[in-house]
Please model this.
Amino acid sequence: MLAAIRPDSWNLPLFVHVLGAMILFGATATVAIAGFAARSRGAHAELLARVALKTFLFAIIPSWIAMRVGAGWIEGKEFPNDEPGWLGVGFAVSEGGALLLIALGILGWVSVRRHGIGRAAAAVPILAGIYVVALAIAWWAMSAKPG
Amino acid sequence: MNKYDWLLFLHITGAFLLVGGGVVAGALNLAALRRDRPSEILVLFGLTRIAVAAIIAGSLLAFVFGLWLVNEVGYGYGDGWIVAAIVLLIAGNAIGGFAGSRDARTAKFAEELVAQGDAPSAELQARVRDPITLICNYGSGLILVALLAIMIWKPGA
Model:
Protein backbone atom coordinates (compact mmCIF):
# COMPACT_ATOMS: atom_id res chain seq x y z
CA MET A 1 0.00 0.00 0.00
CA LEU A 2 2.79 2.41 0.92
CA ALA A 3 4.42 1.87 -2.48
CA ALA A 4 1.29 3.28 -4.14
CA ILE A 5 1.26 6.52 -2.13
CA ARG A 6 3.37 9.56 -3.00
CA PRO A 7 3.22 13.29 -2.18
CA ASP A 8 1.11 15.38 -4.59
CA SER A 9 4.13 17.51 -5.49
CA TRP A 10 5.75 14.49 -7.17
CA ASN A 11 2.88 13.91 -9.59
CA LEU A 12 3.63 16.56 -12.25
CA PRO A 13 7.33 15.66 -12.64
CA LEU A 14 6.41 11.96 -12.70
CA PHE A 15 3.77 12.64 -15.38
CA VAL A 16 6.26 14.59 -17.53
CA HIS A 17 8.88 11.85 -17.07
CA VAL A 18 6.58 8.90 -17.83
CA LEU A 19 4.77 10.57 -20.75
CA GLY A 20 8.13 11.56 -22.26
CA ALA A 21 9.45 8.01 -21.82
CA MET A 22 6.34 6.45 -23.40
CA ILE A 23 6.46 8.78 -26.43
CA LEU A 24 10.21 8.17 -26.70
CA PHE A 25 9.56 4.42 -26.73
CA GLY A 26 6.93 4.73 -29.46
CA ALA A 27 8.97 7.16 -31.55
CA THR A 28 12.09 4.98 -31.38
CA ALA A 29 9.98 1.93 -32.27
CA THR A 30 8.65 3.89 -35.28
CA VAL A 31 12.22 4.48 -36.50
CA ALA A 32 13.03 0.78 -36.05
CA ILE A 33 9.85 -0.33 -37.85
CA ALA A 34 10.38 2.10 -40.76
CA GLY A 35 14.05 1.11 -41.04
CA PHE A 36 13.44 -2.63 -41.03
CA ALA A 37 10.49 -2.24 -43.42
CA ALA A 38 12.71 -0.33 -45.88
CA ARG A 39 14.89 -3.43 -46.30
CA SER A 40 12.06 -5.41 -47.85
CA ARG A 41 10.42 -2.48 -49.63
CA GLY A 42 13.24 -1.11 -51.77
CA ALA A 43 10.91 1.03 -53.90
CA HIS A 44 9.87 2.95 -50.78
CA ALA A 45 13.23 2.98 -48.98
CA GLU A 46 13.66 6.74 -49.38
CA LEU A 47 10.13 7.46 -48.10
CA LEU A 48 10.70 5.26 -45.04
CA ALA A 49 14.11 6.85 -44.38
CA ARG A 50 12.43 10.28 -44.41
CA VAL A 51 9.74 9.04 -42.01
CA ALA A 52 12.50 7.78 -39.68
CA LEU A 53 14.42 11.07 -39.80
CA LYS A 54 11.32 13.23 -39.24
CA THR A 55 10.27 11.02 -36.35
CA PHE A 56 13.73 11.45 -34.87
CA LEU A 57 13.62 15.24 -35.20
CA PHE A 58 10.02 15.89 -34.16
CA ALA A 59 9.33 13.09 -31.68
CA ILE A 60 12.49 11.45 -30.34
CA ILE A 61 14.39 14.66 -29.47
CA PRO A 62 11.48 16.47 -27.69
CA SER A 63 10.36 13.32 -25.86
CA TRP A 64 13.91 12.52 -24.71
CA ILE A 65 14.15 16.07 -23.31
CA ALA A 66 10.78 15.69 -21.53
CA MET A 67 11.79 12.30 -20.14
CA ARG A 68 15.17 13.58 -18.92
CA VAL A 69 13.84 16.87 -17.47
CA GLY A 70 11.07 14.96 -15.66
CA ALA A 71 13.64 12.46 -14.34
CA GLY A 72 15.89 15.15 -12.91
CA TRP A 73 12.89 17.03 -11.49
CA ILE A 74 11.44 14.08 -9.58
CA GLU A 75 14.85 12.78 -8.53
CA GLY A 76 15.48 16.10 -6.77
CA LYS A 77 12.19 15.73 -4.87
CA GLU A 78 12.27 12.00 -4.15
CA PHE A 79 15.98 11.48 -3.46
CA PRO A 80 17.48 14.87 -2.52
CA ASN A 81 20.49 13.31 -0.75
CA ASP A 82 20.93 9.60 -1.41
CA GLU A 83 20.18 7.81 -4.70
CA PRO A 84 19.20 4.12 -4.77
CA GLY A 85 21.07 1.78 -7.12
CA TRP A 86 18.16 1.17 -9.51
CA LEU A 87 18.10 4.87 -10.38
CA GLY A 88 21.52 4.35 -11.99
CA VAL A 89 19.94 2.06 -14.60
CA GLY A 90 17.63 4.89 -15.65
CA PHE A 91 20.46 7.39 -15.91
CA ALA A 92 22.63 4.91 -17.84
CA VAL A 93 19.82 4.52 -20.38
CA SER A 94 19.09 8.25 -20.62
CA GLU A 95 22.69 9.57 -20.67
CA GLY A 96 24.26 6.64 -22.51
CA GLY A 97 21.23 6.50 -24.74
CA ALA A 98 21.73 10.15 -25.68
CA LEU A 99 25.01 9.22 -27.38
CA LEU A 100 23.29 6.38 -29.20
CA LEU A 101 20.47 8.71 -30.27
CA ILE A 102 22.96 11.28 -31.61
CA ALA A 103 24.50 8.51 -33.72
CA LEU A 104 21.00 7.46 -34.78
CA GLY A 105 20.19 11.00 -35.92
CA ILE A 106 23.42 11.34 -37.92
CA LEU A 107 22.93 7.95 -39.59
CA GLY A 108 19.29 8.81 -40.28
CA TRP A 109 20.35 12.01 -42.04
CA VAL A 110 23.01 10.15 -44.07
CA SER A 111 20.41 7.51 -44.94
CA VAL A 112 18.05 10.15 -46.37
CA ARG A 113 20.92 11.72 -48.34
CA ARG A 114 21.58 8.27 -49.87
CA HIS A 115 17.90 7.66 -50.71
CA GLY A 116 17.38 5.13 -47.93
CA ILE A 117 19.95 2.61 -49.12
CA GLY A 118 23.44 1.68 -47.95
CA ARG A 119 25.13 0.95 -44.62
CA ALA A 120 23.69 3.95 -42.79
CA ALA A 121 20.17 2.89 -43.71
CA ALA A 122 20.92 -0.63 -42.49
CA ALA A 123 22.34 0.63 -39.18
CA VAL A 124 19.42 2.96 -38.30
CA PRO A 125 16.85 0.26 -37.36
CA ILE A 126 19.49 -1.77 -35.49
CA LEU A 127 20.44 1.22 -33.30
CA ALA A 128 16.78 2.08 -32.80
CA GLY A 129 16.02 -1.52 -31.85
CA ILE A 130 18.86 -1.53 -29.29
CA TYR A 131 17.47 1.65 -27.73
CA VAL A 132 13.95 0.19 -27.58
CA VAL A 133 15.37 -2.76 -25.58
CA ALA A 134 17.34 -0.35 -23.35
CA LEU A 135 14.14 1.60 -22.64
CA ALA A 136 12.38 -1.65 -21.68
CA ILE A 137 15.21 -2.42 -19.23
CA ALA A 138 14.87 1.10 -17.80
CA TRP A 139 11.11 0.83 -17.23
CA TRP A 140 11.70 -2.56 -15.58
CA ALA A 141 14.24 -0.93 -13.22
CA MET A 142 11.96 2.06 -12.58
CA SER A 143 8.92 -0.11 -11.74
CA ALA A 144 10.51 -3.17 -10.07
CA LYS A 145 13.19 -1.10 -8.27
CA PRO A 146 15.61 -4.05 -7.86
CA GLY A 147 17.76 -3.94 -4.72
CA MET B 1 11.10 -8.54 -6.58
CA ASN B 2 7.86 -9.13 -4.70
CA LYS B 3 4.40 -9.72 -6.16
CA TYR B 4 3.53 -5.99 -6.18
CA ASP B 5 6.71 -5.17 -8.15
CA TRP B 6 5.91 -7.80 -10.79
CA LEU B 7 2.32 -6.66 -11.14
CA LEU B 8 3.39 -3.02 -11.44
CA PHE B 9 6.06 -3.91 -14.02
CA LEU B 10 3.59 -5.85 -16.17
CA HIS B 11 0.93 -3.12 -15.82
CA ILE B 12 3.45 -0.46 -16.85
CA THR B 13 4.68 -2.65 -19.73
CA GLY B 14 1.11 -2.71 -20.98
CA ALA B 15 0.88 1.07 -20.67
CA PHE B 16 4.13 1.52 -22.63
CA LEU B 17 2.91 -0.80 -25.40
CA LEU B 18 -0.46 1.00 -25.50
CA VAL B 19 0.91 4.55 -25.66
CA GLY B 20 3.94 3.52 -27.74
CA GLY B 21 1.68 1.79 -30.25
CA GLY B 22 -0.42 4.95 -30.43
CA VAL B 23 2.70 7.01 -31.15
CA VAL B 24 3.77 4.61 -33.94
CA ALA B 25 0.29 4.75 -35.50
CA GLY B 26 0.22 8.55 -35.20
CA ALA B 27 3.65 9.02 -36.78
CA LEU B 28 2.81 6.76 -39.74
CA ASN B 29 -0.60 8.40 -40.14
CA LEU B 30 0.96 11.88 -40.20
CA ALA B 31 3.45 10.72 -42.83
CA ALA B 32 0.60 9.32 -44.96
CA LEU B 33 -1.18 12.69 -44.90
CA ARG B 34 1.67 14.19 -46.93
CA ARG B 35 1.87 11.50 -49.61
CA ASP B 36 0.06 11.35 -52.97
CA ARG B 37 0.94 7.99 -54.50
CA PRO B 38 -1.37 5.14 -53.44
CA SER B 39 1.55 2.71 -53.04
CA GLU B 40 3.22 5.05 -50.53
CA ILE B 41 0.02 5.45 -48.54
CA LEU B 42 -0.48 1.68 -48.65
CA VAL B 43 3.04 1.03 -47.25
CA LEU B 44 2.52 3.49 -44.37
CA PHE B 45 -0.98 2.25 -43.52
CA GLY B 46 0.26 -1.34 -43.78
CA LEU B 47 2.93 -0.72 -41.13
CA THR B 48 0.31 0.55 -38.68
CA ARG B 49 -0.77 -3.09 -38.23
CA ILE B 50 2.29 -3.50 -35.98
CA ALA B 51 1.07 -0.54 -33.92
CA VAL B 52 -2.43 -2.01 -33.68
CA ALA B 53 -0.98 -5.30 -32.35
CA ALA B 54 0.97 -3.34 -29.70
CA ILE B 55 -2.14 -1.33 -28.74
CA ILE B 56 -4.27 -4.48 -28.32
CA ALA B 57 -1.57 -6.33 -26.32
CA GLY B 58 -0.88 -3.23 -24.24
CA SER B 59 -4.56 -2.63 -23.48
CA LEU B 60 -5.00 -6.22 -22.29
CA LEU B 61 -1.84 -6.18 -20.14
CA ALA B 62 -2.64 -2.78 -18.59
CA PHE B 63 -6.27 -3.81 -17.90
CA VAL B 64 -5.65 -7.28 -16.44
CA PHE B 65 -2.65 -6.37 -14.30
CA GLY B 66 -4.23 -3.03 -13.38
CA LEU B 67 -7.27 -4.82 -11.92
CA TRP B 68 -4.97 -7.28 -10.15
CA LEU B 69 -3.03 -4.34 -8.67
CA VAL B 70 -6.27 -2.78 -7.39
CA ASN B 71 -6.89 -5.96 -5.40
CA GLU B 72 -3.25 -6.31 -4.31
CA VAL B 73 -2.89 -2.73 -3.07
CA GLY B 74 -6.31 -2.60 -1.44
CA TYR B 75 -8.11 0.03 -3.56
CA GLY B 76 -11.81 -0.45 -4.30
CA TYR B 77 -13.02 -1.45 -7.77
CA GLY B 78 -15.72 1.21 -7.37
CA ASP B 79 -13.29 4.06 -6.61
CA GLY B 80 -13.98 7.01 -8.89
CA TRP B 81 -10.50 7.22 -10.43
CA ILE B 82 -10.43 3.50 -11.19
CA VAL B 83 -13.87 3.59 -12.80
CA ALA B 84 -12.82 6.67 -14.80
CA ALA B 85 -9.64 4.92 -15.95
CA ILE B 86 -11.56 1.83 -17.10
CA VAL B 87 -14.11 3.99 -18.95
CA LEU B 88 -11.32 5.96 -20.66
CA LEU B 89 -9.46 2.77 -21.64
CA ILE B 90 -12.61 1.32 -23.21
CA ALA B 91 -13.55 4.65 -24.86
CA GLY B 92 -10.03 5.17 -26.22
CA ASN B 93 -9.95 1.69 -27.73
CA ALA B 94 -13.47 2.01 -29.16
CA ILE B 95 -12.80 5.41 -30.78
CA GLY B 96 -9.34 4.35 -32.01
CA GLY B 97 -10.79 1.09 -33.33
CA PHE B 98 -13.53 2.97 -35.20
CA ALA B 99 -10.90 5.19 -36.86
CA GLY B 100 -8.72 2.14 -37.54
CA SER B 101 -11.54 0.38 -39.38
CA ARG B 102 -12.00 3.46 -41.61
CA ASP B 103 -8.23 3.55 -42.23
CA ALA B 104 -8.33 -0.16 -43.15
CA ARG B 105 -10.97 0.59 -45.81
CA THR B 106 -8.77 3.44 -47.09
CA ALA B 107 -5.80 1.05 -47.30
CA LYS B 108 -7.93 -1.41 -49.30
CA PHE B 109 -8.91 1.38 -51.69
CA ALA B 110 -5.24 2.36 -52.02
CA GLU B 111 -4.42 -1.27 -52.84
CA GLU B 112 -6.99 -1.19 -55.67
CA LEU B 113 -5.44 2.01 -57.04
CA VAL B 114 -1.95 0.47 -56.93
CA ALA B 115 -3.24 -2.43 -59.05
CA GLN B 116 -4.66 0.11 -61.54
CA GLY B 117 -1.33 1.92 -62.08
CA ASP B 118 -0.57 3.76 -58.83
CA ALA B 119 -1.77 7.16 -60.06
CA PRO B 120 -2.61 9.81 -57.43
CA SER B 121 -6.32 10.00 -56.65
CA ALA B 122 -8.36 12.87 -55.24
CA GLU B 123 -10.75 10.40 -53.61
CA LEU B 124 -7.88 8.61 -51.85
CA GLN B 125 -6.56 11.97 -50.62
CA ALA B 126 -10.00 12.83 -49.28
CA ARG B 127 -10.22 9.48 -47.46
CA VAL B 128 -6.73 9.80 -45.94
CA ARG B 129 -7.57 13.33 -44.73
CA ASP B 130 -11.13 12.51 -43.66
CA PRO B 131 -11.78 14.80 -40.66
CA ILE B 132 -13.92 12.29 -38.74
CA THR B 133 -11.19 9.66 -38.95
CA LEU B 134 -8.49 12.15 -37.97
CA ILE B 135 -10.51 13.48 -35.01
CA CYS B 136 -11.11 9.93 -33.79
CA ASN B 137 -7.45 8.94 -34.27
CA TYR B 138 -6.02 11.92 -32.41
CA GLY B 139 -8.89 12.03 -29.94
CA SER B 140 -8.08 8.49 -28.85
CA GLY B 141 -4.47 9.62 -28.35
CA LEU B 142 -5.60 12.46 -26.09
CA ILE B 143 -7.73 10.01 -24.12
CA LEU B 144 -4.58 7.96 -23.46
CA VAL B 145 -2.82 11.07 -22.11
CA ALA B 146 -5.81 11.74 -19.82
CA LEU B 147 -5.71 8.09 -18.73
CA LEU B 148 -2.03 8.40 -17.80
CA ALA B 149 -2.78 11.57 -15.82
CA ILE B 150 -5.50 9.74 -13.84
CA MET B 151 -3.14 6.84 -13.13
CA ILE B 152 -0.54 9.22 -11.72
CA TRP B 153 -2.71 11.70 -9.79
CA LYS B 154 -5.25 9.08 -8.63
CA PRO B 155 -7.86 11.76 -7.84
CA GLY B 156 -9.90 10.86 -4.78
CA ALA B 157 -7.65 7.99 -3.71
In short: The helical segments of chain B are 3-33, 38-73, 80-115, 122-128, 131-153. DSSP finds five helices and no strands in chain B. Residues 38-73 of chain B form the longest helix (36 residues). The mean pLDDT of chain B is 95.
